[in-house]
Design a protein that fits this description.
The structure is a single chain. With 398 residues, the protein is of the alpha+beta class. It contains 13 helices and 16 strands. It has a nine-stranded mixed sheet with strand order 3-2-1-7-9-8-5-6-4. Strand 12 and strand 13 form a beta hairpin. Helix 7 runs antiparallel to helix 9 and helix 9 crosses helix 10. It is globular. The chain starts with a strand and ends with a helix.
Amino acid sequence: MQFHFLVGNDNGNSEHDIFIDGRLIQQPNVNCTVDALPWSEDQAPESIIKNLQDQLIVTIDSPSARPGMYYIGKFALESGELLDTMQVGIDFKYDVDLPVINTLAQIAAVAVQKSFEEQKGILENIEVTVDMATALPITQHTDESSSVFERRFTVAPHNVTVHLGKMRVTVKIVFDFTKVVPEATPVTFALQKDEEGNWRDGDIFEEFIETYNQPANFNGSYFKNKRILHTDIGDGSTEYPITEGNKLLRQFVHGSNHGAGYAIEEALDEFNRLIHLSDSPRQFFSDVIKNPKHKYHAKAIKTLKRPLEGQAKQILNNIRKQLTKARNEIDVICVYGGGSILMRSILFPMLKELCNEREIKLLYIPPQYAVTMNAQGLDSFVRGKIYEALKERAKQAV
């Protein structure tokens, strides 16, 4: 069986947000190497397929990553095994195996699920051709690094074995074309258009409409020619690109090693002390913070407050630098990313004051959309005419 998938792939330091064939998958961006399957008895493969992403085990045979058997995402996080993560401020995303392994695993998992839906049964061999858009932090994105990252996917076929109990499904993945862009810039597509290609509207703009007395029929067309200073707050970095329409203004490219991950790293020892653990991974702390019903949620938030304030002030200083460089010629400051949710109570008032002072509008993306803006933008990009033109040009150049 053969599939062709369009993939918009946001490999974050903490979370993996990936659109595959129009479907959004969100998983902790971790994995671990293992020597054997965890099941001691036969488990019906059909019972695993529905929630495959939450119990994903793969064997990777790829020229671009270390071969072996891996637990992926949530299953790895809950396994108690030694985790492989992207180290905040240390790892270069284009140079480590984790983004490649987790991307291959998620694509293979969706292929297994899709073949099961269509065939009403499990096929042992599947082939997938992929067109993908993905991104690197602006502080890491150069022509050379993006080419290196692209080649890790396009260099040759990748073979992924997906384990369904004792049954194995082999998925051969070929990347027909991959484009790596600077993080944050795809968000211009997500601000303007929805999944169907229509002008975006709805509750994502509710606060903005109310604050700035915008008309009731306000939609994403407002942003098509605007000069936007993006503030994409992640775990390990914050990006501050300036775009005009869909164009990145190269003279204003800027990023800094600040984000929620640094605050979490700083708070982690105190959090572990409060919950009487000698050690726990950063992703566990992140999950506790995201879940208000978790018994340790209040303790996690308490330990985070001071470190978050420090990171928020650093981010504000970087925004000021960008505004100075741009002579305040900015229409909108747009804030999003997983770190923006944690920092909102601290950062929003500071930014509102700054924007009022400099006659700039503030669009602080609501929590339900903040994490996936990059993935949505990449998904829109890979479906669009610009991607097709870049692909055609690359094919002609070969």
